[in-house]
UniProtKB/TrEMBL annotation:
It holds the Pfam family DUF309. SUPFAM superfamilies: TTHA0068-like (SSF140663). Gene3D superfamilies: TTHA0068-like. InterPro entries: DUF309, TTHA0068_sf. It comes from the Archaea. This is DUF309 domain-containing protein. The lineage of its organism: Archaea, Methanobacteriati, Methanobacteriota, Stenosarchaea group, Halobacteria.
Length: 217
């Protein structure tokens, strides 16, 4: 959905923002930017929202490069991220921009700080986020972004599971797929096992649907 100016709608932007923050806060520093990138590209240049997403994308990239000991890449991205975020209110859209700007200055001056303490957490309205704490549609964005990050997962399987979960909600039936999609996004340790369970349930559901459709052919 887009707004009249051709950019992302308010609800889509809020959902993408929250999904990316939740992905980042569970340690998926590289994947987080994928929740924001398409929305950022759709926004008019030099607007506050465009600068916010551009700055956050470069912030997460700076953290990612610092963790990989690419010091020059980290410092360059920290500097440019700070420039994009510099003129925004310190709590724009609820994001802890004042803390982010301070951290970017530290990272620019001393990127090896990443080896002495964990990266700064992102917060919205003062709270860290996890995918399991999001509404389903926002967690679904996170799940699909994470699936696209790893070769071990088929993003199409996750997309079909998301649709199966939506059908469950529309039908008022069990919420198995809803829970599995949210668990897949939220739990890096058990993610492989959750994906296997989700794939198995999805294959069973689709076979049953094919059998029912076959009765009317």
């Amino acid at each position: 959905m887009t707004d009249a100016a051709g950019g992302a709608s308010e609800s889509d932007l809020t959902r993408a923002l929250r999904a990316g923050v939740a992905i980042y806060d569970i340690g998926e520093y590289h994947a987080a930017h994928d929740a924001w990138e398409d929305h950022w590209l759709d926004l008019p240049k030099h607007t506050d929202d465009e600068r916010l997403l551009h700055g956050l994308i470069q912030f997460t990239a700076a953290v990612y490069h610092a963790r990989r000991r690419n010091w020059s890449g980290a410092t360059g991205l920290a500097e440019s991220a700070g420039e994009y975020l510099a003129d925004l209110p310190s709590d724009y859209r609820g994001v802890n921009l004042a803390g982010i700007r301070r951290y970017l200055a530290v990272l620019h001056a001393d990127p090896e700080v990443i080896e002495r303490r964990p990266p700064l957490a992102l917060r919205i309205d003062g709270e860290r986020l996890r995918p399991a704490e999001l509404d389903f549609e926002t967690a679904a964005v996170a799940a699909q972004v994470i699936a696209g990050e790893y070769d071990a997962f088929d993003a199409d399987v996750i997309a079909r599971a998301v649709e199966a979960a939506r059908e469950e909600v529309r039908e008022g039936t069990e919420t198995r797929f809803t829970a599995l999609v949210m668990d897949f996004a939220d739990d890096p340790v058990q993610r492989d096992l959750i994906y296997q369970r989700l794939s198995s349930h999805l294959a069973k559901r689709e076979r049953e649907q094919e059998d029912v459709e076959g009765l009317f052919d």
